[in-house]
């Protein structure tokens, strides 16, 4: 998967020389990411508590960062992963002492994209990722669901394997209500892992930190 993702990125870079390209952050012509938008991706670390663990995010999911992440996720512009890597690296200070465990991508999303967003950015950071979580059932798209509905949607949907005695950080691309991260924490703890926290590329804006736990 790594080789195919890298090949896809190289092909996109080559096509950009032939076909017009727009800045992922502001739609400026003839540049994948303009200087001003690149500056807007400088890490701005935020923290919140989810399921009793600290979640550290490198960016706020708003404005330019949100547009760039959406362009990576939904338009397949994998070259943008390198621009997002410093933000994830800033959030993952504890990664050297723990394994990064990604929240699984749904099969439909993986078929559509061909890559795992957070894992791709983690690789651009040189961070080690190990898949210790798997889905036990399909879940609905979380978009448009309120906090309670999101919790119910993902409750019991993940299970951990080979996790006993492992020191781990949960990895995801964007934290919104924290419902998915909370389910990942629950599953890893049930599998015997020592969950020391979670890291994300970005977090949605919040007026205050909140404690969110699964039902």
From TrEMBL:
InterPro entries: ComF/GntX_DNA_util-trans (IPR051910), PRTase-like (IPR029057), PRTase_dom (IPR000836). It comes from the Bacteria. Pfam families: Pribosyltran. Residues 112-212 form the Phosphoribosyltransferase domain. CDD domains: PRTases_typeI. Belongs to the ComF/GntX family. This is ComF family protein. The lineage of its organism: Bacteria, Bacillati, Actinomycetota, Actinomycetes, Micrococcales.
């Amino acid at each position: 998967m790594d080789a195919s993702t890298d090949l896809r990125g190289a092909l996109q870079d080559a096509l950009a020389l032939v076909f017009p390209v727009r800045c992922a952050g502001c739609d400026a012509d003839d540049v994948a990411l303009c200087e001003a938008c690149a500056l807007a991706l400088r890490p701005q670390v935020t923290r919140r508590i989810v399921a009793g663990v600290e979640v550290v995010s490198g960016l706020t999911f708003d404005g330019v960062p949100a547009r760039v992440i959406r362009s990576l996720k939904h338009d397949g512009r994998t070259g943008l992963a390198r621009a997002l890597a410093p933000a994830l690296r800033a959030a993952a200070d504890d990664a050297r002492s723990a394994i990064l465990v990604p929240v699984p991508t749904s099969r439909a999303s993986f078929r559509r994209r061909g890559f795992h967003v957070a894992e791709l950015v983690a690789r651009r950071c040189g961070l080690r990722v190990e898949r210790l979580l798997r889905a036990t059932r399909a879940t609905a798209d979380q978009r448009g669901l309120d906090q309670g509905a999101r919790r119910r949607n993902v409750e019991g949907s993940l299970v951990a394997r080979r996790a006993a005695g492992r020191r781990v950080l949960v990895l995801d691309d964007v934290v919104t209500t924290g419902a998915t991260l909370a389910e990942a924490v629950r599953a890893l703890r049930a599998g015997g892992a020592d969950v020391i926290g979670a890291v994300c590329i970005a977090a949605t804006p919040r007026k205050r930190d909140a404690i969110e736990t699964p039902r």
